Automatic annotation (TrEMBL):
NCBIfam families: 3a0106s01. Residues 3-246 form the ABC transporter domain. Transmembrane segments: none annotated. Keywords: ATP-binding, Nucleotide-binding, Sulfate transport, Translocase, Transport. InterPro entries: AAA+_ATPase, ABC_SmlMolc_Importer, ABC_transporter-like_ATP-bd, ABC_transporter-like_CS, Mo/tungstate-bd_C_term_dom, P-loop_NTPase, Sulph_transpt1, Transp-assoc_OB_typ2. GO terms for molecular function: ATP binding. This is Sulfate/molybdate ABC transporter ATP-binding protein. It comes from the Bacteria. It holds the Pfam family TOBE_2.
Length: 342
């Protein structure tokens, strides 16, 4: 295991930010800490980084107890949403900075043969890193002459320069527009497949976590709701919170389930199916999204089906339909109603 978090708790005054957090992250894994704002994701990341101390519990990094180590002794690299690069230094200098500090606290004259060798080694390393983050052609620019996405890639190159055993990213693409975010997340996945550094990133965007991460830790109100692969979380959510956070959910009687996991019939064939009336039908691309009023339930049921299917059923506003969960549907009981999982 690369990172072992055991029994970590953190309070701010009376407020419990983290409560008995236990998580093991294997070496080389790309993990997402996912959850709503204020849930405690950043606090946990900062405790792993050593930027914050836990009140209780321990953090182990690569087999060594890091609980009391300062950040610079943990061999972690980090990137935050608004990452501060050195504005007056070129892209290449920004990447070289950490390496130069490590070699003799900077490479100032007088020059010795050793310093010259270090300088060459660093230049070589910087070139490799810039290639890795696709910024080679911008090596001599200043950070202000880069786009937001390019600046975040520069931040990643800087964090990777000192070969951290763990890379920690706090909403690294948070401030960027949707298209650039998407590009960077694909790029991060590919980068990770190339360099395999154990990486933990914080996000509140479920799509980002589902697309990029090997494993997702869902955190809400200071507690872990579930840990699993994207498929496990999507197909076997531990509770209605996880289910609702990872995708669209609708209620059908005592169950919360996905709108595309509801079977629509135009006759009462299925035992226990719920009768209803189509109130709205919205075409979105290749899908048809139906809003169905059902008896005994205040909020309508949302059903998503393919347009071809909707056409075959000859559905229109006011059609009577019978709804039931499809076979193998992912569903969880809605707690307030005390139903059972299927
Ligand atoms: N220094 C602090 N003093 C007091 N409360 C704090 C402090 N830092 C964090 N908190 C509180 O702890 C809770 C968890 O914060 P944290 O930043 O970990 O959440 P988060 O899940 O990362 O949210 P976001 O996605 O909004 O960054 C929040 O309610 C926050 O207000």
């Amino acid at each position: 295991m690369s990172i072992e978090v055991r029994g970590v708790g953190k309070r701010y005054g009376d407020f419990v930010a983290l409560d008995d957090i236990n998580v093991s992250l294997p070496t080389g894994q790309l993990t997402a800490l996912l959850g709503p704002s204020g849930g405690g994701k950043s606090t946990l990341l900062r405790i792993i980084a050593g930027l914050e101390t836990a009140d209780t519990g321990s953090v182990e990094i690569e087999g060594a107890d890091a609980t009391k180590l300062p950040p610079q002794k943990r061999n972690v690299g980090f990137v935050f949403q608004h990452y501060a690069v050195f504005k007056h230094m070129s892209v290449a200098k920004n990447v070289a900075f950490g390496l130069e500090i490590r070699a003799h606290g900077g490479l100032r004259p007088p020059w010795t043969p050793q310093k010259r060798r270090d300088k060459e080694r660093i230049a070589q390393k910087v070139a490799e890193l810039l290639e890795l983050v696709h910024l080679s052609q911008f090596a001599h620019r200043l950070p202000s002459q880069l786009s937001g996405g390019q600046r975040q890639r520069l931040a990643l190159a800087r964090a990777l320069a000192v070969e951290p055993s763990v890379l920690l990213l706090d909403e690294p693409f948070g401030a960027l527009d949707a298209k650039v975010r998407k590009e960077l997340r694909d790029w991060l996945r590919r980068l990770h497949d190339e360099v395999h550094v154990t990486t933990v990133f914080v996000t509140h965007d479920q799509e980002e976590a589902l697309e990029v991460a090997d494993e997702i830790v869902v955190i809400n109100e200071g507690r872990i709701e579930q840990i699993g692969t994207p498929d496990q979380l999507y197909d076997e959510p531990a509770n209605d919170f996880v289910m609702g956070f990872l995708g669209e959910v609708t209620r059908l009687g005592p169950l919360a389930l996905r709108p595309h996991d509801i079977e629509v019939a135009v006759a009462p064939g299925v035992v226990g199916s719920t009768p209803g009336v189509v109130r709205r039908a919205l075409r979105v691309g290749f899908e048809m999204r139906l809003t169905v009023d059902v008896e005994g339930q205040a909020e309508p049921v949302l059903v998503v089906l393919s347009r071809t299917h909707a056409r075959a059923l000859d559905l229109e506003l006011g059609s009577r339909v019978w709804l039931s969960p499809t076979t193998g549907a992912t569903a969880v009981a809605v707690p307030a109603l005390g139903g059972v999982s299927v």
